[in-house]
Amino acid sequence: MNLLESIAKTLRLCVILSVVLAVVGLIAEQMGTSYGEVLTWLAVLILILSPFMGAIAATISLAHQKDRKWATFGAMLIIVSLMGMAIALIR
Amino acid sequence: MDPILLLGLVILGIVAGILGALLGVGGGIIFIPVLTIVYGLTAVSAAALSLVGIIAISSWGSAIYLNKGVPNIRIGLMLEIGGVAGAIIGAMIAVYLEDWILIAVFSAVMLFSAYRMIKNGGSDYTLENEDGEFEYNDLKCGESVCYDVEHKAGGTVGSIFAGMISSMTGVGGGVIKVPIMNIYMKMPIKAAAATSSYSLGITAFSGAVVYLIHGSVPLELAAFLIIGSVIGAEAGTRISARIDASSLKKYFSLLLIASAALMLLRAGGYI
In this prediction, does ipTM exceed 0.85? Predict the structure, then answer.
C-alpha cells in the first residue's frame, strides 16, 4: 500500500467508526441507557484522534519506504503530539 | 436541547463542509459565529465544538484528495510539528483568557480571511521545476506537476503562529497556512490548499484533545455536528469538482465582514 493510500484508508476508517458510534450513542441516550454518553464520548475521541492516526500511518509508510528524512519529521510530529496530550492530562 | 436546534447542527455541518470544500476554508469561520450567536455557547465551548467539526471535514475531505495525489504529505508533516506545538500553547492560553479577547482575535482572523479572498483570489506564487523534489496531480488538466519548496524551516516556525490562532479561536488556520505555503514557501496553490486541508486536521486535533480532556466539548452537540460535517465534506468535494467558486469568494467575503461585525458587537455586549 502506498503512502497516500494508507493515510486515506486510516482517516476513512476512523471517521466511519466515529459516525457509527455517534449515531448509536445518540440513540442509546434517547432510550435512556447509561452507556449512551460513553459511546458519544468515544465517537468524539476517535474522530479527534483520526488525524493523529493518519500521521502514524504516514510515518510507518515513509519508514517502510526507507525515506528516513521525512519519516524522522513524522516521528517528531508524533512525539510533539504525545507530549501535548501528556501535558493536557497532567494539567 | 430543542430537537430543531440539534437538527440545525447537522445542517450547519453540511453547509460548513460544502463551503469549506468550495472556498478552501476549514469551516471554523462558519461554525464559530453560528455557535456563539445562534446557540449562545461561550467562546471556549464554541472553539472546542468547531475544532471537532473541522477535524470531521478535514479527515473525510483529505481522504478523498489523498486518493487523487494532490496534498504534499511530507511538507504537511514537517509544518505540523510547529502547528501542533502552537496549538498546545494556544489551547492552554485560551482557558485563561476572557471571552471578549478570544472573540476579538477571531474577528480579526475573519477580517483577514475576507481581505485575502477579495485581494488574492487567483494569485499563485509557484516554483515549478521539471526536476523538482515534489509533485502533485493537477486534477483540472490531469497532468503531474513537479515543483520545489523554499524556506521549509521558516514555514515550520510560521506554523506555530497558525496553530496558536487555530486552537485559541476554533478556526482551522488554513487562512494563515495557505499563504505561508504558497507565498513564502512557493508551493503551487492547489497543492498548498490540499496540504492545508490535510494538516489543519492535525492542528485541530492537538487543540481539540486538550478541550476534550478538560470536558469543554459539549458531547451531544458534537455528535450531531460530526454527522453533518462528514455529509457536507463528501458533498463539498463532489460539488467543487464541477463548479468554479471564484465568484462565490467575493460574496462570502462580505458575509465574513458582516459576521465579524456581529461578533464584535456581541463581545462588546451590544447584542
Answer: yes
